[in-house]
Write a structure and sequence with these properties.
Rossmann fold, alpha/beta, 5-stranded parallel beta sheet, 26% helix, 27% strand
């Protein structure tokens, strides 16, 4: 954590959020476990997808296929950015046709990433059901998109940036808030 960041959730709180989200998914789809697929949005939605998958595997004693989706080329702001996006791996090595697909991401603010993911996922098939799992919901949506499973909603004004830290990427788990200008 940087000196000027304030932790608003630690690793234990994040784990509890993920377990609660997995409970909601398990309750809704207990009769369709064989159809469940979880896809994390690159880069910081991938650890959430993997952890949700692991939590559901424990509940159902069955492997839940998990993938990664890069949405960089599907974003509506691609031409407005100062630099070209870093393209990351997309790995969806399973069929999503007529399946239950849970899209997972760390933070949702405007909903633009989710909109791009919905466009991108259609290149891989047509799911029967698509749901959205978001660890932190900023509540500043610009699109009529809402998470089906949310870890926690934090409503801070736009001068603050919420950053989810994952052990898999950052060597520790936390949710931090910091003045936005500090991240630029």
């Amino acid at each position: 954590m940087t000196n000027d960041a304030k932790m608003i959730a630690d690793g234990a709180e994040m784990a509890a959020m993920i377990e609660c989200m997995a409970d909601g998914i398990a309750e809704e789809f207990s009769s369709r476990v064989e159809d469940l697929r979880i896809i994390g949005l690159q880069k910081r939605g991938v650890p959430l997808a993997e952890r949700l998958s692991a939590a559901l595997e424990k509940r159902f004693q069955q492997k839940i296929p998990t993938g990664k989706l890069d949405i960089s080329m599907y974003r509506d702001d691609i031409g407005m950015r100062k630099s070209l996006p870093l393209i990351r791996e997309t790995s969806i090595n399973f069929d999503i046709e007529k399946r239950v697909v849970i899209l997972a991401d760390d933070v949702m603010q405007a909903g633009r990433s989710v909109r791009a993911a919905l466009d991108a996922i259609t290149d891989f098939g047509r799911p029967a059901i698509t749901r959205l799992a978001i660890l932190i919901d900023r509540g500043k949506h610009e699109f009529p998109i809402a998470a089906d499973y949310t870890g926690k909603a934090f409503h801070y004004d736009e001068s603050f940036k919420i950053k989810v830290r994952w052990n898999e990427i950052d060597s520790y788990d936390s949710v931090e808030i910091q003045k936005y200008r500090e991240y630029l």
